[in-house]
What does this fold into?
Amino acid sequence: MRIAIIGTGQVGTTLGRAWANVGHEVVFGSRGSTSPVVGSSVDTPAAAAAWADVVVLTIPWAAASQVVPALGDLQGKVLIDVTNPIGPGFVLTHGHDGSGAEQVAALATNARVVKAFNSTGLENMANPQYGPHRIFMPVAGDDGDAVSKVVQLAEQIGFDAYGFDSLRRARETEPLAMLWIKLALAWGNGRNIGFAVSRRLERDAPSSARPSKRQRIAIVGSGNIGGALARAWLRTGHDVRIVTRDANATGVKALVALGATTSGIAQGADQRDVIVLAIPAGAVVEVAQAMGGLEGQVVVDCTNAIGKGFTLTYGHTTSSSEQLAKALPGARIVRSFNQQGAEVLVNPVFAGTRATNFVAADDDDARNSVLELAADVGLDAVPAGPLASARYLEPMTVLWVSLSKAIGTRQFGWSLVRR
It folds into this structure.
């Protein structure tokens, strides 16, 4: 393919070099006169875009509003948006109800816009291989042929690429980029990390190790997530109580048969170390207040506030966990166990690799307690900073469900892999 890279920074140069190495023609669109890649040339951005089959936008987000319209008519061309809409204060400027990619699509003339290559660092663009794993690369767009072309381009340079049939999925992949940035730069993991997807094998067995510290856990809700966590913690020896209005419900009785106890709502928090909220997000505050407000308690928020059109209720400026913390000012809120499906929580082992569970909280002791609970059931438990990081973790749910539909199975997990 003929590929125009708009921008000659590190990301554009790395991608351009990778595609040139596998035989594509690469031209850089830049005001400069020297190509950063041997064998490639430089032209003006508009001329490079006019020549290319695929145009790759690798400029700072702040420049997009001027650069994209100036590229001219992109009729029939694929425009890959590699930017992330990061504004002052190093926060996303778009969230649950929009994305930078959708803004780029509005700015571009007749382009088939695809979001890709924005969710990881340039080190992974140069080498996306981590032992047996290839870095996960989400590719999202409204045009199926354009998405397929970009998936092919990603696979050719070593990524494990998956196509999503809507540009709206950029609303999740842009927060995923922020999560990678925070993990790499703010939370001490370094830049040689990435997200990988693993499928279930028949030999994969869940952990049956006994915990170093037996905790008394109250789980509010016995649905898919609550039931999966209850089974996992009972298997590893924790004291599990199911808080319910109906102790005779089939799901509750099945958990009691495995060793759980039950209580009503008002008594649910009595003599418990950790409270896990695994009920619909709209009911959480009312139930928590009926439990006494949970002041001083470690409260794990597993909920996801998802509205019409499978869209998150909150986005880049706040999260459902932060809203819960405001409603329960005395509780020690922790965001966890919401990023993947119940199948992952029951058995987090995929092809011998542990799925990762991120844990965010403002209270260090509360975060550490939940990290231990995640590790007890075999998850790769990773601290994810303050509770505000829920803004990046909550979109992972939507992305996981979308990926399960794209690949036709829920028997997969994603992991944080290290070089």
Remarks:
- The mean pLDDT is 95.
